[in-house]
Amino acid sequence: MESLFNFNLEPLLLDLPDAEIIYYPNFFDKQQAATIYDELLQEIAWQQDTITVFGKTHPQPRLTALYGNEGKPYSYSNITMHPHPWQGILQKIKSYIEATTACQFTTVLLNQYRDGKDSNGWHADNEKELGSNPIIASLSLGAERVFQLKHNSLADAKKSITLENGSLLLMKGSTQHFWKHQIPKTAKPIGTRINLTFRTIK
Q1: Helix runs in the chain, H state only
Q2: Contact at 8 Å (CB) between 199 and 180?
Q3: Is the pLDDT assigned to residue 202 strictly greater than 90?
Q4: Which of 67, 68, 76, 62 is nearest to 142 (CA)?
């Protein structure tokens, strides 16, 4: 994995109220990102859960997988996922992210957005299993997608970021208390995106 390390990182601190968000646009270069993407696409145990919204049950609009320590489950949107044991490439990516950010993680939730119809609605990563000020490290691979943020009480506090192939977005501090985020649907022809969100389950 050392050959995948990118030592020319230029992190950007997003200037948003009540948030601590750092964006690394080139955490992995394009060739490195493509290598990791191809391996994850083939090796990860992808699944599609059902989700119930306003009393109606339908397939979740993306594929997911959970890997992590000690079999600790993770629940969100009335879905409880049980982690697979760490897979080699995921452990190596986790170690690199931890070395770069000085944060520690126990679990990774992976999302596969197969095309523009797949999405993730407005939410905060504030489940009780994540503790009071969760740290989320979000790695994007494959097709670029728009990532939108909005403040819970400040109507004009909004932000849209195009998450680039090989980029890392780190959300820390009180971000999840004050902000929601989403990956909206798009009608544009777009390829598959794989997103890895590293987190710590208490």
Answers
A1: 30-43, 88-101, 175-178
A2: no
A3: no
A4: 62
DSSP 27: S
CA separation for the pair 103, 62 (Å, rounded): 27
Strand partners, 74: 81
Q: List pLDDT tens digits, range 124-179.
A: 999 999 999 999 999 999 999 999 999 999 999 999 999 999 999 999 999 999 99
Q: Pick the residue with more confidence: 60 or 8?
A: 60
Of 38, 30, 28, 41, nearest in space to 1 by CA: 28
The string of pLDDT tens digits covering residues 47-71 is 998 887 778 888 999 999 999 997 7
Strand partners, 146: 162
- Nearest Cα to Cα of residue 148 among 109, 179, 110: 179
Of 172, 170, 88, the residue nearest 134 (C-alpha): 172
89-98: Cβ within 8 A, 24+ apart: 89/1, 89/36, 89/39, 89/40, 89/43, 90/196, 92/1, 92/4, 93/1, 93/36, 93/139, 93/196, 94/198, 95/1, 96/1, 96/4, 96/5, 97/137, 97/139, 97/168, 97/198
Distance between start and end Cα atoms, the chain: 28
Strands annotated E in the chain: 12-14, 20-24, 50-53, 56-59, 63-68, 74-76, 79-81, 107-113, 120-123, 136-142, 145-151, 158-163, 168-172, 179-183, 193-199
Q: Give me the count of residues in the chain.
A: 202
